Amino acid sequence: MPELYRNTPVCEDPQHIDQTHEQRILAQIPDEDAAVDIADLFSQLGDSTRVRLLSMLAMEPMCVCEMADILRMSQPAVSHHLRMLRQSGVVRFKKDGKRAFYSLSESKSGRMARQMLSVIHNDGEEQ
Known about the structure:
Blueprint: H1 19-28, H2 32-44, H3 48-59, E1 62-63, H4 64-71, H5 75-87, E2 91-96, E3 99-104, H6 108-125
Antiparallel strand pairs: 1-3, 2-3
Helix pairs in contact: 4-5
């Protein structure tokens, strides 16, 4: 069992042991599975190209060739980044003939990415 879930307290000072406080905090932090999902999203946002792609997709669905033109990148390079975002569940795509249109997904990861981008964008407007 990980040390985080040990039954014996680490701190031996009786003034620091407040099980009600600890349980309240524990109830408000993400469980391990949610923390893994959040960490994965943060790792995806750790790349400036993916942040720019997500910013575009937060505005409207777009095809790979449009995004490649806007970013002045090759289509395979953009597709690589989009594949990573799709595997994380942040974006989804829909085929329309030969073209694939990408958008932010309605998954928890997609919604979190949209919220983070909104906060960052709105923060920039206040300056």
